[in-house]
Amino acid sequence: MESQLTILLPVAALWLAAGAVADGLPRLHNTRALRRRTGWLLVLALAGVALTAAVLTAGLLSAGTTPVDRAAGALALAVVPSLLVAVSTVPRVRRLRAGAGAFANAPGTPAPYGLRTAAAHPLVGLPVQVTALTMVPALIVAGGTDLGAQPAVAGPAITVGTLAVAAIGVRHALRHNRLAERARPPATRSTRAAGALHV
Question: Which residue has the higher pLDDT, 187 or 23?
Fold first, then answer.
């Protein structure tokens, strides 16, 4: 079991760090800081995807119950969210980094609400944080606890996990909508407000 944890701990550390960086992106008010943090997130997300894929591939190629095989089995829940990170999050972060890089000649420029809105998009933070969340059961399984053999624990754990994913998704959506509202031109906002008052 110890060798499984040795394999999974670096994977979990990468995803947890990526989740923390992704969560802080919309709070950055400076384009230089935004560009730097998107670079960190890009490196962490790519490393997390690569390491997760490497463990899963090694598990598929190994025969029997080697530590790598058991570690790959523990990562089964991480397959879909990590794939979503590769397909959706990484391209969005690259575009966000390029957008922040446009202000490289003026590093003290405040980050426009448009960039912060893009940073708050649910497909930037949600897949990364869900992948980090799936590391928790992976580490528990690697530690020697068989969750499937304990229905009294498995049911509530699935419920808590589902609620946690839903809460993360709602939080990202609300934050994205709030920043998107601020990113709209004042004329658009006042027109909408006048329309609401007229109704």
Answer: 23
User: Residue 6 is which amino acid?
Assistant: T
According to DSSP, the residues that pair with 30 across neighbouring strands are 110
- Token couple for 72: 């790959």
Give the tokens for residue 162: 């589902």
Phi-psi category of residue 66: left, alpha or beta, with phi > 0 → left and psi -120 to 50 → alpha: beta
Shortest CA distance to 169 belongs to which of 123, 110, 131? 123
Q: Which two tokens stand for residue 64?
A: 């029997």
59 backbone φψ class: left, alpha, beta (φ>0; ψ -120 to 50):
alpha
Quote the mean pLDDT of the chain: 83
Which residues fall within 8 angstroms of residue 121, CB to CB, at 6 or more apart? 92, 172, 176
User: What global pTM score does this model have?
Assistant: 0.82
